[in-house]
Known about the structure:
Elements: H1 2-11, E1 15-20, E2 24-30, E3 36-43, E4 47-49, E5 52-54, H2 57-79, E6 88-93, E7 99-101, H3 120-130, H4 139-148, E8 159-161, H5 163-172, E9 176-178, H6 179-182, E10 188-189, E11 194-195, H7 197-207, H8 216-219, E12 222-224, H9 235-241, E13 257-258, H10 259-266, E14 274-279, E15 283-288, E16 301-304, E17 310-316, H11 321-336, H12 343-354, E18 364-367, E19 384-387, H13 395-406, H14 408-420, E20 427-431, H15 440-449, E21 453-456, H16 462-476, H17 483-491, E22 497-500, H18 504-519, H19 521-530
Parallel strand pairs: 1-6, 6-13, 9-12, 14-20, 20-21
Antiparallel strand pairs: 1-2, 2-3, 4-5, 7-8, 10-11, 14-15, 15-17, 16-17, 18-19, 21-22
Domain Carbohydrate kinase FGGY N-terminal: 16-240
InterPro entries: ATPase_NBD, FGGY_C, FGGY_Carb_Kinase, FGGY_N
Domain Carbohydrate kinase FGGY C-terminal: 276-474
Amino acid sequence: xxxxxxxxxxxxxxxxxxxxxxxxxxxxxxxxxxxxxxxxxxxxxxxxxxxxxxxxxxxxxxxxxxxxxxxxxxxxxxxxxxxxxxxxxxxxxxxxxxxxxxxxxxxxxxxxxxxxxxxxxxxxxxxxxxxxxxxxxxxxxxxxxxxxxxxxxxxxxxxxxxxxxxxxxxxxxxxxxxxxxxxxxxxxxxxxxxxxxxxxxxxxxxxxxxxxxxxxxxxxxxxxxxxxxxxxxxxxxxxxxxxxxxxxxxxxxxxxxxxxxxxxxxxxxxxxxxxxxxxxxxxxxxxxxxxxxxxxxxxxxxxxxxxxxxxxxxxxxxxxxxxxxxxxxxxxxxxxxxxxxxxxxxxxxxxxxxxxxxxxxxxxxxxxxxxxxxxxxxxxxxxxxxxxxxxxxxxxxxxxxxxxxxxxxxxxxxxxxxxxxxxxxxxxxxxxxxxxxxxxxxxxxxxxxxxxxxxxxxxxxxxxxxxxxxxxxxxxxxxxxxxxxxxxxxxxxxxxxxxxxxxxxxxxxxxxxxxxxxxxxxxxxxxxxxxxxxx
Length: 535
């Protein structure tokens, strides 16, 4: 097997996917059987600079280079050959946000990530104008808010894109986006699989009195669907990704996608009535729809699969960040007591304790709002834990409360889909850090959604594997072969998976918690209003 993999590497019959997540940049190199043969990663974290959540350009490229070099080193150490040829390549990243460039390709303002809830005014105006939900995270919301704010850079705009689009552009020279990623920039016309021209015209008319030196269509990237070629790695791009100079140029790239689309691919949930949930720094659950929703819901994003099918998404900005902080506190305590710390053991012990908590979680309440939360109407976040005087304050209830709370805002959006819109969902596939402790995240998620939750053996590979699969699909698919057919027949035919069905007692427990969660939102509002960011 090792000899076969070595031959595939030398012949360039591999595909590489790199995804820039919120806390980690991950690279996955796959072989001809679509299984990972080398993985690399780079840890990073956003910074709050002048009230804006951002990552610097230097951090972006340093992280990409480090994650790529880790893959190259694994290839050299494990298979004894340098990584020079790659069959296909793809990039994905956290969706939405705002990267604005002038005619000289200079970044005009620091990258504004999805985490910024600073576009409420813009979001409301555009949602009403289009009769289509425009979340605060979307690129168009950031653009129009900058116009409303009369920011100086607006008159210098030449191109706006996302993080994935930026990386792809710098490596290929092509200003393109995959349709799934593009659906977080501006609404998509499901017939043309491109930006909705009627809404573009509406936007241009809206801003016409401001006499801007551009039309919206001049700023936006071209939209491509999965399977289309999106350019090739240039000489300069190869050196940018691999400063050692070993990586050869000319590698074909698939359209850059968002982490929503790559999550769908990595969980084989691109067909109707399938769904997936990604739970890590943020949590978003997605369902591929059979038809349009009856109403416009500001809690629900409408995006697309990488092939342009309509997807409803319930996206919460906050999931495991505050939960991880508490786990780290217990690790600190263990170290202070002179005990040897194994983080996997600590996570496993604490998460499994949550399954033993009381049905009413002991009356405890928490909000893991490290940043704002649009579903519940918060422009900023303040992590909060509170309990009544007669609460049952046990470690099991404490952990159960924080795990429930991590999914609270997302559940509010999914309840609209499943209970109000009556969307049909056969099962949902989970991936992300929440599911790393076997069984626990699945059981909690199944309770939240009252739907069976499946986790595949490749769940840990996540979106980086998903974008690698899209890169492989581009060069290996049969003529006119749909993406779902390719995934079913060549990737997931023999995939091992574990499914956990919702337990009625857990479902009832989660519903009880949600009553307290909703009733306690004014407490979180008071914390946001009165607890200053400065410490």
